[in-house]
Amino acid sequence: MKYNWILFDADETLFSFDSFSGLKQLFTHYNVDFTQEDFIEYQQLNKPLWVAYQDGKIDAKTLQEQRFSEWGKRLSVKPAELNHGFLVTMAEVCRPLEGVVELLQQLQHRAKLAIITNGFTAMQQLRLQKTGLSDYFEFVVVSEEIGVSKPHPDFFHHALQLAKPRHSEEVLVVGDTLESDILGGNNAGLDTCWLHYGRDNQTAISPTYQIETIAELLPLVEKKS
Question: Which positions are annotated as active-site residues?
Fold first, then answer.
């Protein structure tokens, strides 16, 4: 194959990430019936924090605690405790997306695989253990650990230092988010594949390839052999 390394985003590329279910399960421990209205309110705080985190304006600790600041006040619980419970719960409810395990089985003898994620360390490790997918990946780059997040060039440079490809043309970045996965990969001089799930690209960001489902990745990379 043309690509000796494939760098995968994690959430909604390899794994489902149903944060509503995770939050609902988390708050049952506090006798709270977490509703869709509660989720909308949570996301109004959470989403801008993620943008600020990806832009390097806040660190991981700030994001994790501020997103639970209001619930911490309501429940008289430290936001850090709520965040820890949420990460543990999400590691339990996340599952490999349809076709992912089969894809990894096919790719593992054709290329080296790695995960590059803006998620948090505790959840990544626990999720890989619970799903039994750890052995498919050479390494996992987590933004929380290295101090920069996608799409920052230093994030991708760190991944390349670990992969040590002979040429950047041997590396493919696969992800579902244009603004972090694809933009970051493009800026690092790497080929990119956007997993769009039927969404239109309403940005100026241009991936090298586009696929609607993860199952389409194997025939795509085999064509590039």
Answer: 9
